[in-house]
Amino acid sequence: MRHGEAIAGRPDSERELSAQGQVEAERMAGWFGRQPLAGARVLVSPFVRARQTAGHVGRVLGVEPEVLPFVTPDDAPTAVIEWLLANTDEAPLVLVSHMPLVGLLTGLLVEGRGDRGLAFPTAAVAELESEVWAAGCARLVRFTAPADIR
Known about the structure:
This protein is α/β, with parallel strands linked by helices. The chain is 34% helix and 14% strand. It starts with 18 loop residues before the first helix and ends in a 6-residue tail after the last strand. The mean pLDDT is 95. This is Phosphohistidine phosphatase SixA.
C-alpha cells in the first residue's frame, strides 16, 4: 500500500497526511476491514505520512503497525524481498510505504524486474500472492485505489 496524500514540505520524512490523505487512509482502512486478514501484520515506513496511514489500517485490523527502517521512498526493493524471505510465515502482511518503492517492489515480485513497476495512486493497494517471496514468483491478485471504493 502507498500512503495517503501528503502535504508538501521538508524534511520529507516529517510530511503529514493532508485532509484528503486522511480521507483516503480511512476509506482504505474500511476496505481492509472487509478483507479476510485474520492474524495480519501491518509493516510500515518510519516516515510520518506512512505511519499515519498505517495507523488507520492497524486500528481496523486490531494490530499495532511495525516500523521497518528500510521501506522508505529511496530504499531498494531487494532489501524488502530479503526481509520477506527471512521473516514471513502464513500470516497476511500489509506493507505501507512510498513510491517508487511500492511500484518497484510489485514489479520485481510479479514480473521479476526491479527497474519498472506499477504506478500507485495515493493510498492504493496491490494485493499479491506467492508461495515464495522472490523475484518473479508472485501473482497480482487485485489492485484497489480509494476511488474504487464506494
